[in-house]
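Entry 14. Structure prediction run on the chain below.
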Amino acid sequence: MDKNNKIRLGISIGDTNGIGPEVIVKTLADQRILNFCIPVIYASADLLKHVRKALNAEHFNFQEVDSAQALVPRKINAISCWENELEVNPGHPTPESGRASLDSLLAASRDLKAGLLDGIVTAPINKDNIQAEDFRFPGHTEFLTAYFDAPESLMLLVSGGLRVATVTGHMPLKDVPTRLTEELLLRKMTILLDSLRRDFGILKPRIAVLGLNPHAGEQGLLGREEEEIIRPAVVHMKERGHLVFGPYPADGFFGMRQFQQVDAVLAMYHDQGLIPFKTLAFESGVNYTAGLPIVRTSPDHGTAYDIAAKHVASETSFREALFLAYDIVRMRKEAEMPAV
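Output returned:
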């Protein structure tokens, strides 16, 4: 933490032609945020001024700084990540907007690795136009897992007490059954349990594990993954003293709101977890990458090109991502303090 005891949160700009810049400016226009953290935006002064003018965000002011070593307390800090003027064309992904999003992400990640930041909040990228020689990943999660040398990570969607994680991430649905193994489930459950304790302060977390097939396989009639992979992993964790339950049929589990009885839900694949999560908490949801040595959050929405030029994007999810990053950083720092 910096000398003023304020948590330093880096903010990567995302695709500059999406809604990332808009929701960032809208969030930080509330000056009360400066009471508890130092926001550091990785973009360019020209871009931020352009967005401020377009939104008529008169309360959004920032301080240009040369590096994260020269942050100004009680100010929104901005670090330039490119020298040439960037053409802004809201609603239309371009190679230039993709490169800008990558330059921003790389700069913030370098400063985070160097200990100049306490956490990072990433605005949405376009997973296609960001691809480059120095970025060959399906998304933020996979990039940050590799960049910070983590053996594995876990996508965890959070909205208050609702937490939904996924065993598999950005992959074709046809590949999910072949990717699932008991060992993979055990690793993901371990990451989830550790994160609930370390990052959310839940001393004895309860996890519900979903099945892969309809009706959780119906005792093998509709698929064998539950009996051969998922249930043995759940039993193994129970034998180790963990409160892990399942596998549950996904539709009935969410339909009967059984998620209210546990601290987190582990889904087998992306849409199985994210469809119910976003139905329940689209505007307030946050994507957190559990299992990393660093803290990274993001809003749970994408670039939303269809509304990028309309200035109607809600900043709620981005604001919640900023708050969650702050809360987890603080939780980790307090846990590291020596007992008095």
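The first helix runs from residue 20 to 28.
Filed with the rest of this week's runs.
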